[in-house]
Amino acid sequence: MILCSSAMASQQAGKGGLSPELYSRAGEIIEADSPRITEIFKDIHQHPELGFAEVRTAGIVAKELTSLGFDVQTGIGKTGVLAILRNGKGPTVLYRADMDANAVKETADLPYASTTEVTLADGKVVPVSHMCGHDANVSWMLAMAHAMVELKDQWRGTLVIVGQPAEELIAGAAAMIEDGLYSRFGMPRPDYLIGQHTAPIPVGAVMAVDGVRSTGTDQLDVTFYGVGGHGSMPQHTIDPVLMASSAVVQYQSIISRNIDPQQPAVLTVGSIQSGSDNNVIPDKAILKINLRWFSESVREQLISGIKSINRSIAVANGVPESRMPTMRMKGHTTPMVNDPALTARLATSFKDLKNIQVIEKAPPAMASEDVHLLLGEYTDVPFSYTLIGVVSPKAFADAGFKPPYFNHNGDFLVELGAMPIGSLTATIAALELLGI
């Protein structure tokens, strides 16, 4: 188990601000609670829910936190949860975990694997599973909340917990803010915002890296409008499938020929939706697109390039002005940036944990997060997001010392040995900022 190393703690106590005794006590609480938290994790894993549909998961979060004495409010931004525990005068720490799953079929052979399927608004039936580890993120948060209640004599201030919906849609944080997270539901202005997320690195590895950690992103839908008809008479139609297919290929020229090669950018078409019959040319086609960028100027190039390509393809295919392609902007977030001082402080506190390898240097990822948008207008609040390894060290080694799978893949797997580690790092982070 990952209890504090007494010798190490004696040498480093004061660097992170926690005593060796507090490390040991926190470790004992987490160890005793680990079987319960593991069962909560398995339950959430087996019952995944897509963004803005996390009714069951939010219910679990609300029930657990209410039982611990938190002041809990639900239904924020549709399915978000806010929980506040006041424990005297001191800082206010906001801790967030995301709750939603992916429309991906789980392929890992687990006794608690997801077999969930849901019907989307368009009638399409899709598999649903936690292939990004938000089930672990939520479980770690609940373990931390329990430990902080047990340790109320060791800290002062206000602990605020948010169970956030729809991170995968890059829409949940903004939805909670727009619904009045601060103004209507009374969330206090935090002094710090922290959180954790699973990462496909070995169990025991903890990434606490400062600076820019992930890209900004946009989720958008492009719709091409054509003229439908019989598959045998394409001359009497305007084929939206052909236009959409051309667009998918041409979009990549924006990256390869318009954007500076030294500026990172990704443009992914994750879905093409059109028609239903073999012998019918449909009247429209939808492209679901994802953009990743660090620079606002690159973002503008990507969006303007998509618009230009859409229009040129439509004109070339004889689409009238009234039927030009449309573009619907959906989820959006800016790059995520870890505060250097706060991140270094947390990293130091993690170094006093036994069997933990703290990673403090790593390049930013092209993935994206909306956690920092929960700060709303308080953009000057220090923020830090820690990544927790969830891969079996043996599986990592067998794969050539690289991730054997990545987030959003059907094989994504959270090793159960990661559960007490994430629970303890979350607790130590909260204690570091609130401890007396």
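[next item in queue]
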Amino acid sequence: MATETPQRAYQAPCPGCGAPVNFVSAQSTHAVCSYCQSMVVRKGDVLARIGKVAELFDDHSLLQLGASGRWKGQSFTLLGRLQYRYGEGTWTEWVAMLADGSTATLSEDNGAYVFSIPQPTQQRPIPAASAFRVGATTAINGVSYSVASNQSVALISAQGELARVPELGAAFDMVELRSADAAVLSIDYSTQPPSVALGKAATLDELTVTGLRDSSQKDEKGRQFSCPNCGAPLTLNLNTTKSLTCPSCNSIVDVSQGMGGELKHAIQDEPVQPLIALGTMGQLQGTQWQVVGFQHRMGYAPSDPDEHFGWEEYLLYNAKRGFIFLVDSTEGWSVVRPATGAPVVASNGQSATYLGTRYTLKESYSAETNYVVGEFYWQVQRGQQTSNRDYVSGKNVLSMEQSPAELTWSVGSQMDSATVAKAFKLQDKQELLKRSDVGATSSTKNPVARADFWVFVVVVVLILVLSRCSDCDPNVENCSGSGSRTSGGSFGGFSSGGGHK
């Protein structure tokens, strides 16, 4: 009886420089020479050079080629790496070889991960990308999904072994769908017919990844350049940064094209000072976070655009956990994380269910970013607008933001100001941090039935009339108008804290 031939590594000289190029996976058809960056294709026992790839954009990932882990009881090893660019930033896909010789994809976007397995397509053809409208629902292989993203993307660099390679720099469509059980279905239109992969979000700890790159290998000095508006020296501390603000002139500087690309800027006036300084370290929910970005946002009801309310968002970063948001609104503080799955929204839009919890619609409104400072992993712009909905369940909030190309969900939980002050060692500013902290007045129950509520309203109105004369400006303050923002994440972040995966 014949026995299965064990898989063996294959090595051949690079046709560009003569250095050895290794193939470990039998399914790998392409590889990138680590010496001269030549893209080579394997044709039998001969390698042919088909071009050269750009240097990898150093995103300071903890992953590296050769790292290994386990997925659903089966071991895997990372053999290749593909970097893509889309409208709001970049993301990385790692080629993983499973123990049975098949390949999978570990997508990485700013510290969050999705492990995906190629899927056979259904009997009928996959529709064109233009047929998938963001926010709509559709069925693939008999499963209902919500369309979360429809983007034009392009491959910008590659490394290691690759099963297939889209044309470098050529734009193609990528559609991403989400299910109620947090599955992620990606449709890649760089091939015909389109390729489909099904995945789930996972942390590095859940994947039991070993062989991670030592964080000490990172260049902690950062990249330096001059502000294109005023010439002041600027430093990028995070290599995932797509935009940052100049501390001298408050301009928003776009670095999404890399340091070699054209630097674009937008001038900002009326600077808003964050209560928690950029760079501050804080301990929240058992994890150490650093404040890397801050933005002030403004909301208004579509039925009455003259009524505005403002809130603020701090972007927090951890090397292994990625990014989360600390939201400061008139109703209190909350910690917000991107949601992986697609909540099921009731037909009348008045409720949504996510991971077994039912949330009730609190408000619908339009949101706009009107001031930013710090570094951001997506290409932030002043004036960015989204359509938003907030659903509540007790102290928890489920928020939806929709732009023409993306629909993102985030889940948040409220916390009192004392917790925020302790987390960031700001006890001396505790009075400034106080809000309508979690308690009876922020309950979902209607407070107007209570007599003390009306006494409170009268006193507040008198104080506002006599001392402030309606001077509160929602462009720079957390002002309450027709509504008040409870929680929510920022444009550009969903399952993995970024605009994709």
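[queue empty]
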